[in-house]
Design brief:
By secondary structure, the chain is mostly beta strands. Helix content is 10%, strand content 35%. It has three helices and 30 strands. It is elongated and about 110 Å long.
């Protein structure tokens, strides 16, 4: 016989209805060092053979095993031989844990399937009339501020549409021969910045409906602007980028003259430390905010084959930038700006006019224009990071010029050359079919021209 220590583990079994034991086992426990567990398991579960391949496992030993391990302390047969932990352990049975894990796996698979096949709405939630919107790829004339007010330029006029109460305000009309080319709300929504065809750059107080100041520096049209705190960055047809400090009298902080053609896209990262600029010479430049005074860029990205206007930083990976190319390119590219490398490239076969990331699901929405194929004038949703297509929205009759999303990240507005603004509940749960053309809410409520 073997000498057994009092703190050795006790073998227990899994029952169809697990029973908790609060007392130490009193069954015979063999010394594991003298056991071949695989052999013992085979002998105990296969009653048709009596052959013992190990000379140490004689008939007396087998009988002892049968006697002490085939019944529990209450005389019930074991179904499976399992070596468990301490008799004082209160852990649930392994079988129960396996069942829980299986249930969790099924739930996860169902959840993944639901997310994977999330459907897009069939139609827009609302349509606003936008007469005389300029059909120009290089302009950036629409922005949805954190105050839930949409600013959009129609010809020489700038309008503010309040998404809460649906009121429309005409902020100003530009002087003859001039018109807005870019619009951007400040982060605190106290000001709306407007770049003009005749090289002006103005700050407007939206509440007071008056200009606050003019920012000098450009001598051609200003078609791209972006805020970074109190710094307003502007890009112009004069090929320059200027950082303006709107708090001080001498507003020009730094000037960059690296682009060889018009600057048509600007976007600051969410942390405000990196700026991306796109140009009509098909290039993207990545800038470090702390080194911009020296005009030394971090990276020059040159894989697009047409002008780069739409730029969008990934909300879940701060070093990932999405960009879109013009008609001769038609590609959406994802970049790692730390390494300056292209992660992924998707050929949409259509001009990419706008990009917006979904903050609630890992997706990105693209707006498209001219195309030789069937992808023109549509919005397309893509899964990230696989960049497989979720679906398309084909409601605009002309190219999609601009995209912007609401402060809550659920609604996207698309501005089309068909002179409509279409609001899509595309980033949240699929909405019911509530398409409507609202004569009360459209931008013609100011009676600047008859309702169509």
């Amino acid at each position: 016989m073997w000498n057994l220590d009092s703190d050795w583990y006790s073998p227990r079994s899994l029952l169809s209805s697990p029973t908790q034991y609060d007392f130490p086992g009193d069954r015979f426990i063999p010394n594991r060092s003298l056991m071949d567990l695989d052999q013992a398991h085979s002998l105990l579960t296969n009653r048709t053979t009596k052959k013992v391949r190990n000379e140490n496992f004689n008939e007396f030993y087998r009988q002892k095993i049968d006697e002490n391990l085939t019944l529990d302390s209450e005389g019930r047969p074991f179904r499976i031989l399992v070596f468990r932990g301490s008799p004082k352990s209160s852990r649930k049975s392994i079988r129960h844990i396996d069942e829980m894990r299986e249930e969790e796996m099924v739930a996860l698979q169902n959840s993944t399937k639901k997310n994977q096949f999330r459907r897009l709405p069939k139609t827009e939630d609302r349509i606003l009339d936008a007469p005389n919107i300029r059909n120009d790829y290089y302009l950036n004339i629409m922005d949805w501020g954190k105050n839930n007010i949409l600013a959009v330029a129609l010809d020489s006029d700038l309008y503010l549409w309040n998404a809460d109460n649906r009121n429309v305000l005409k902020l100003f009309q530009a002087t003859e021969g001039d018109y807005p080319c870019s619009v951007a709300w400040s982060e605190d929504t106290k000001f709306v910045a407007v770049g003009f065809m005749q090289s002006k750059l103005q700050l407007w107080d939206a509440e007071a409906s008056k200009p606050v100041r003019n920012l000098e520096g450009h001598d051609r049209r200003v078609a791209a602007i972006a805020w970074n705190g109190h710094i307003l960055t502007s890009g112009s047809q004069d090929k320059s980028i200027i950082n303006h400090d709107v708090r001080v009298r001498n507003n020009v902080v730094s000037r960059l003259n690296t682009h060889r053609e018009e600057v048509c896209g600007l976007k600051w990262s969410s942390r405000g430390n990196i700026l991306a600029s796109g140009g009509n010479e098909n290039l993207i430049y990545i800038w470090d905010s702390s080194k911009m005074s020296s005009s030394n860029f971090l990276h020059r990205l040159k894989e697009h084959r047409a002008a780069v206007k739409p730029l969008a930083w990934c909300p879940y990976q701060s070093d990932v930038l999405a960009s879109g190319g013009g008609t001769q390119d038609g590609c959406i590219k994802l970049w790692n700006v730390q390494k300056g490398t292209c992660i992924c490239s998707i050929d949409t076969k259509a001009q990419v006019c706008g990009l917006e990331w979904n903050r609630h699901h890992k997706e990105i929405l693209s707006g498209h224009g001219f195309s030789t194929g069937e992808n023109r004038n549509q919005l397309s949703m893509w899964k990230y990071p696989s960049m497989t297509k979720v679906g398309d929205l084909n409601r605009h009759s002309s190219r999609v010029l601009h995209l912007s999303q609401s402060p809550d990240g659920l609604t996207v507005v698309s501005a089309g050359a068909d002179e409509t603004l279409r609001l899509w509940n595309v980033f949240g749960p699929p909405a019911a079919d509530a398409s409507e053309f609202s004569h009360l809410d459209n931008l013609l409520s100011l009676k600047i021209s008859p309702i169509r």
